[in-house]
Amino acid sequence: MLMLGFAGFLGLLKIVLMALAAFGLVDAVFRREDAFRAADKQNKMFWLIILAIALVVSYLFSILSILPIAGVVASIVYIVDVRPALKQVSGGGGGWRGRRGGSSSDGPYGPYNGGR
User: Fold this and answer.
1) Max CA distance (Å), the chain
2) What DSSP state is assigned to residue 31?
């Protein structure tokens, strides 16, 4: 009975870790390549490969082995470190959501009126 509960807990934990890696992968897919360079992080292809490997490894292997733990660490590094840097470089919105407001003539301190 106890082992059944423990196996259920590990199954739920495995799903959560796969969702974490999948979220990071989908987020990285929709980020622009130049944002990675501007944020002084590794390039986009590097993060796509690392997060895809983390997703596959977390699906194939038991959570108690070393490979899924390394995948979780990579996913957490992307979500906690790389993603905020990319959002800051791309103006906060970025990614798949696009621009939220303002116009194309807005500057950093408000609308640009052409020197009038």
Assistant:
1) 77
2) S
For 74, how many CA atoms within 13 A lie in the half-sphere containing its CB? 25
pLDDT digit string, tens, across residues 70-103: 999 999 999 999 999 999 888 765 444 444 555 5
Using alpha carbons, list the distances in angstroms from residue 116 to 5, 36, 60. Answer: 71, 37, 63
Query: What is the pTM (predicted TM-score) of this model?
Result: 0.71
* Alpha-helical regions (H) of 30-110: 33-38, 44-60, 66-77, 83-89
CA 79 – CA 85 distance, rounded (Å): 10
| SS3 state of residue 102 | coil
Q: Which residues of 89-116 are buried (b: 16+ CB within 10 A; e: fewer)?
A: bbeeebbeeeeeeeeeeeeeeeeeeeee
Residue labelled with tokens 């807005």: 106
Enumerate the β-bridge partners of residue 106: 111
For residue 26, give both structure tokens.
């989908």
DSSP H or E segment with residue 20:
helix 2-29
